[in-house]
Structure formats: structure tokens, C-alpha cells
Specification:
Blueprint lengths: L14 H27 L12 H10 L14 H6 L4 H8 L10
């Protein structure tokens, strides 16, 4: 019989990395919630959620090397765009199939 581990489990992931991952996942969550509202209002004609994919997408971006690795995204990879630093207003315009305008965005 195995003995249950008592007490906190030690992590090899630095707190700064875990905090960044959590912050980005929370940002994607808010984007998804806003898109659900836009869909109900008829402001988005098509919305494929990233729910369940965001952790892998953001984690993958955090592991890639800038200037060396490439991304070929598809319509369900909003988390990749967000994790790469895409401007949030620009992303909303992109998702709504509108041309972003600096004065409006």
C-alpha cells in the first residue's frame, strides 16, 4: 500500500512562470466571456470557443523561442494570439470580422 503525501507538494515551476500562465489564462477567459455576449447580441457571426485548449496554447507559446519558432494558427487559437501579445482591441475587431481603425480601437 502506498502512503499518501501529506503537506504541500513542491513545484519545480518558478512562481513568476505560474503567475504569468495564470494571468494569461484569466485574460483568455474574459475574452471568451465577452465573445459569448457578442454572439448573443448578434455582433459575432461565428464563434468557436477555446475552452479546454487555452492552457495548452498559452503553455506552448511560453515554451517557444521568439525569432526561431513559428505559429500557424487556426480559428480556435485566440489564446495563442493573446499569449503572443496581440493587442486586445485589435483581437476583438479581428474576431468580429471588422477592420481595425486606430481611432476606434
Amino acid at each position: 500500500m502506498t502512503e499518501m503525501h501529506k503537506g504541500p507538494i513542491q513545484s519545480s515551476i518558478p512562481n513568476s512562470v505560474a503567475t504569468e500562465l495564470y494571468r494569461k489564462m484569466l485574460g483568455v477567459y474574459f475574452i471568451e466571456e465577452r465573445l459569448k455576449i457578442f454572439t448573443r447580441q448578434g455582433k459575432v457571426s461565428f464563434h468557436a470557443s477555446t475552452r479546454g485548449h487555452e492552457k495548452v496554447q498559452i503553455g506552448t507559446v511560453m515554451l517557444m523561442k521568439p525569432g526561431l519558432d513559428w505559429f500557424f494558427t487556426y480559428y480556435r487559437e485566440k489564446a495563442v494570439a493573446y499569449a503572443l501579445g496581440m493587442d486586445l482591441p485589435q483581437m476583438v475587431w479581428w474576431i468580429r470580422a471588422r477592420e481595425a481603425h486606430a481611432a476606434v480601437a
